[in-house]
Amino acid sequence: MKETFYEYVQKRGISRKDFLKFCTAITAMMGLDASLTPKVVEALETKERIPVIYKHFQECTGCSESFIRTAHPVVADLILDMISLDYHDTLMAAAGHQAREAAHMTKEKYKGGYILACEGSIPLADGGIHSMVDGKTQLELFREYEKDCMAIIAYGSCAAFGNVQAAHPNPTQATPIYKLTNKPVINVPGCPPIAEVMAGVITHILTFGIPELDIRKRPKVFYRHRIHDNCQRRPFFDAGMFVESFDDEGAKLGWCLYKMGCKGPVTYNSCANMKWNEGTCWPVESGNPCLGCSEDNFWDFGPMFTTLAQVPGTNIIYNPDKVGAAVVGAAAAGVAVHAAATVVVEKMKKDKDTTTSVADQQNKGVSK
Amino acid sequence: MSQRVVIDPITRIEGHLRVEIDVNENNVIGDALSSGTMIRGLEQILVGRDPRDAWAYVQRICGVCTTVHALASLRAVEDALDIRIPKNASLIRDIMNLTQYVHDHVVHFYHLHALDWVDVVSALSADPNETSQIAQSISSWPNSSPGYFRDVQNRLKSFVESGQLGIFSNAYWGHPAYKLPSAVNLLAVTHYLEALEWQKDIVKIHTIFGGKNPHPHYVVGGVASAIDINSDNAINTEKLNQVERLINKAIQVVEQMYIPDLMAIASFYKDWTYGKGIGNYMTFGDFAAPGKDIRDTDSYLFPSGVILNGDLSTVHEVSLTDPEHIQEFVDFTWLKYSDDKPGVGKHPWAGETTFDYTGPKSYKELDMTRPYTWNKAPRWKGHAVEVGPLARILVGYAKGVKEVKEVTDWAAGTLDVPLTALMSTLGRTAARGLETKLLVNRLKDTFNALVANIKAGDTVTFDKTKFDPSTWHRAGKTLQGVGWTEAPRGGLAHYIVIEDQKIKNYQAVVPSTWNASPRDLNGARGAYEAALIGTPMADPHQPLEVIRTIHSFDPCLACAVHLVDKEKREITQVNVIR
């Protein structure tokens, strides 16, 4: 029974070399320095596959959809090999009582040793009748499984913060997971979270245990920076060059989306550095302002396409609202030069950031 | 003497669905009940908000069909404000919607539905040489060597031997209703894994235009991605090339993997003729010719219409705005209307939804004679109807759309069944594949039209003239709009009422509301319930036959039950338990 992940992949005929390559890749994915790879190797060589019970509460299944988009590790590896996904409404073959029994068997067999992954919030209004499965409220079902789990991962902004159904007036009294338990909860917000972040958290638990969390129970490794701080359009913010309409000259040249309502300056997430769907793109790169979807209560921030009242933690010497339309015409000719210059500045800044965060990481240690 | 069998949760769907069946002494289903057991209240949360933001809220109705509610919402707002979006925006939105379809249908077939027909355990005893021969005889899909299938089989074996079966544990393996030879089971399981890898690629089309997937971004008035083929910060040549590569790959997956697998599996289940259901089919229509506005209804690939009692000789017209056509009833739901008269239906613009939970606090079974679901019962001119791929194929066929006729006749001919055989569980699953075949090619055509338009010098993607709310109207004037689309699961319509630049009422009438509908006061059942009746079961305690038929509709229950209480406007205090 105590088969380790490495023994398991060996049986599958995976070579030592491929196993090490895999370990290097997931080390990078977890945002850790390459020098920590041997620790990942050691952990995977000695630890057994963790059972995961993944429960759906008040949700839209977007997090599950994101979960199956992970590229590192490959999704089939994650679902079939790295963990034992013993209950998952959207993917499991069994239905009805056979499905419930599968979860129950895992609970009994791995008391204190399984992860409870939660997608969605739990409604408390009117005794919880707004979401029931098998004639029981979601709170009752949550209680059945949280008692014996090792840790809870609250996937997505619904489980972490309540999200859209908890927006005013929160008709069903949708409640985030951490308010309902004393167990360790890892919040992985985002609507949905980035696939690799979801997989990264599981991998982290598998290799090092629970990652270091911030005050909102988010893994620091993925949520320590504001979107604004790593944004590729940031130099244009600093230079006072703003998009005024979605297809204007500034939009085409990648200027800052702050005036279009971007919430990047108040949003903590990895979108700007990890990007989405295997690093293909991310909202701000595609021309869409950040909605702030990984922040608590972001649906009630106010109209989405309006400018933030203020940008915290930024020393700029101009008022963004007064810089703008006039600049667009005048600056057009100088843009190419300016853009080239800021790209260089950005790159220097990025290089510096990378160095800092690795050092930071090593100083703080990885987890307990 | 009949017995009640309860299946809750129905897995491999979106949302929370409970099905109860009454099985007679011959193990045939005599009656059925479908209950949506979760509600979140999104429509009421929208009241008072900026209409330009509605797409983002309602997109969260569903994370599976992530893009379709956003699209219906944008169209509703643009209808209310009379905004005509630029041609590029129309093309890009269609590309995103078509991408959604192709992704959704392939994932539904392999990951949500196939295991109802494919026995994973049987694949372990297959001869990989035989699987390879079958694979090569039905398709030119490249991964088809005996060694390849042997590797997959070995992987499955080590997985099973580990004793931790994960998502495959405790299912109906070995059930007598499984009919595929082991070699075909191995083929299907292999493609289950391949499709799982591929599905994360095709969505990159959403990522390029909308920034991420699931839940890509949108904007009222067009699309936010700027086009400049010479800029490295806009939709440029490189990004367009990437989109084209992804589309070409999708065509290959659909034509060489999905369709051959679908036809191969269907050929073993031709005698499984159950699940016809109501026999009334409805579409709202979508997919105007590439670059045309949604209002150009004459050019739709999937036209709108209603077929009653399976009669393809007459297609009735559907009006989304006529209050006599579409009405929602609440007699068997945990909702109530203010006038509280039994049997009264409301058109969505006048729609009203107040929680009225009358069910038990915890239960073993629900009472079919009393309200039993959060789902409303929408009706077209009083008729219960089915929506979705089968409805689209049948209405398109009956209206003589050339592409639809060709692909349908091809499938019926290949399987050697009459057209009427499509009105079944199997036909519903086949129709989904057939329309994917059409739509993946429409995806390519739409992409080509975008490139041609950009080449012609058009880079406009956004119309800002009515983006600022102060341009909309004088204070106090009410605007209303309807936005529709044919979502993968069927006709979808969002209704919005705007007053003082804010949302006054918002109602979404979604595909799964039609299909998962409870009965009405006339006793007419919704599509799920009707389709289950009369199905014989091999073993009622392993209700494989039930999930086959339910899955053939591709249920999306969070879509169906998003409605809410109008009176409850105060911010509720969250009680911290413990």
Please characterize this protein's 3D structure.
The complex is a heterodimer of chains A (368) and B (578). With 368 residues, chain A is an alpha/beta fold. Chain A contains 15 helices and nine strands. Chain A has a five-stranded parallel β-sheet, sandwiched between helices. Chain A has a two-stranded antiparallel sheet with strand order 4-8. Chain B has 578 residues and is an alpha+beta fold. Chain B has 17 helices and twelve strands. Chain B has a three-stranded antiparallel β-sheet. Chain B has a three-stranded antiparallel β-sheet with strand order 10-11-12. The two termini of chain B are 47 Å apart. Chain B: This is Hydrogenase. Chain B: Fe cation binds at residues 65, 559. Chain B: Ni(2+) binds at residues 65, 556.
Total number of domains of chain B: 1
Number of helices of chain A: 15
- Spatially, the strands of the biggest sheet of chain B line up as 1-2-3
Largest interface (CB within 8 Å) is between: A-B, 113 and 119 residues
Order of helices and strands of chain B: EEEHHHHHHHHHHEEEEEEHHHEEEHHHH
Residues in helices of chain B, as a percent range: 25-40%
What profile does the largest beta sheet of chain B have?
3 strands, antiparallel
> N-to-C terminal Cα separation of chain A, in Å?
26 Å
Provide mean pLDDT of chain A, rounded.
84
Q: From the coordinates shown, what is the CATH architecture of chain B?
A: Orthogonal Bundle
Radius of gyration of chain A equals 22 Å
Binding site for Mg(2+) (chain B): 43, 62, 562
InterPro entries (chain B): Ni-dep_hyd_lsu, Ni-dep_hyd_lsu_Ni_BS, NiFe-Hase_large, NiFe/NiFeSe_hydrgnase_LSU
Pfam families (chain B): NiFeSe_Hases
Protein name (chain B): Hydrogenase
